[in-house]
């Protein structure tokens, strides 16, 4: 009985730490995204329509991200630096990608980014409540999604009076013939998808062995949550890359 209580207390402690570190990563993500935005619009001939903006920021971010994923394992003392580098590069990629493609698909990319951020905020708020974490999966996804929708509304209300043509609240495009903006529809669908992925990832933390609820493993779990912003799936590239290395290692062992 005492073993079960100890395991449960370790899992609860791990989830609390994971959510706190995820919040810190979310803060780091924003200035990195701003750098991506500035880098993308810097060469633009028309800052109102972003004509002539460059894709270099998000391409550079994607390439560095792939390098970090598939690079050889680094010593444990450098693992936290590697994780923070992941977060910074994710922000750089996100800022550049959303800004560049918002100029190509007005009213869509900004709404999708609002949706991803809002779902993440909803997860941080609701899943930090122990009573919510004890509810069924369906209830947790529902509460996280509802909170995410609330944050999504606040995001759009916050930019409604900015007056910059490139920023389109609710995805509304003046010359569009569509009654409902497609960006808004996609965003409303993305929120529950991202919320479910976040809930499932938090569930996984509750089943971690006690030995894995310490130090770097918690940082990587937090990184997995933050990466859901750009990859709303329970399978992260980190896990895919790890499995890829294991498969390659097994194949080489068999070959020898």
Features:
single chain; 256 residues; mainly alpha; flat; disordered N terminus; disordered C terminus
Descriptive account of the structure:
With 256 residues, the chain is mainly alpha-helical. The chain has one domain. Helix content is 71%, strand content 0%. It is built from nine helices and no strands.
Gyration radius, in Å: 20 Å
Overall structural class, as computed from helix and strand content, comes to: mainly alpha
Total number of domains: 1
Shape: flat
- Secondary-structure element sequence? HHHHHHHHH
Largest sheet: none
Overall pLDDT, averaged?
Answer: 83
Sequence stretches where pLDDT stays below 50 over 5 or more residues: 1-7, 244-256
Work out the helix count: 9
| Percent in strands | under 5%
**What's the number of extended β-strand segments?**
0
Task: Give the CA-CA distance, first to last residue.
Answer: 47 Å
Q: Classify the helix fraction into a percent range.
A: over 70%
């Amino acid at each position: 009985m005492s073993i079960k209580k100890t395991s449960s207390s370790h899992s609860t402690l791990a989830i609390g730490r994971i959510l706190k570190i995820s919040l810190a990563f979310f803060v780091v993500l924003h200035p990195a995204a701003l750098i991506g935005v500035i880098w993308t619009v810097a060469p633009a001939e028309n800052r109102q329509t972003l004509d002539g903006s460059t894709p270099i920021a998000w391409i550079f971010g994607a390439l560095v991200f792939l390098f970090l994923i598939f690079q050889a394992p680094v010593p444990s003392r450098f693992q936290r630096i590697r994780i923070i580098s992941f977060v910074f590069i994710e922000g750089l990629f996100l800022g550049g990608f959303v800004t560049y493609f918002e100029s190509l698909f007005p009213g869509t990319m900004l709404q999708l980014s609002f949706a991803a951020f809002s779902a993440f905020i909803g997860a941080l708020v609701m899943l930090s409540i122990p009573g919510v974490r004890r509810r069924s999966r369906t209830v947790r996804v529902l509460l996280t999604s509802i909170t995410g929708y609330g944050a999504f509304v606040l995001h759009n209300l916050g930019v409604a009076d900015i007056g910059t043509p490139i920023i389109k609240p609710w995805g509304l495009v003046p010359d569009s013939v569509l009654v409902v903006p497609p960006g808004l529809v996609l965003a409303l669908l993305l929120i529950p998808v991202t919320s479910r992925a976040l809930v499932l990832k938090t569930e996984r933390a509750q089943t971690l062995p006690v030995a894995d609820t310490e130090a770097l493993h918690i940082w990587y779990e937090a990184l997995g949550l933050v990466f859901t912003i750009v990859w709303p799936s329970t399978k992260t590239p980190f896990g895919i890359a790890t499995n890829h290395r294991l498969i390659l290692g097994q194949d080489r062992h068999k070959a020898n």
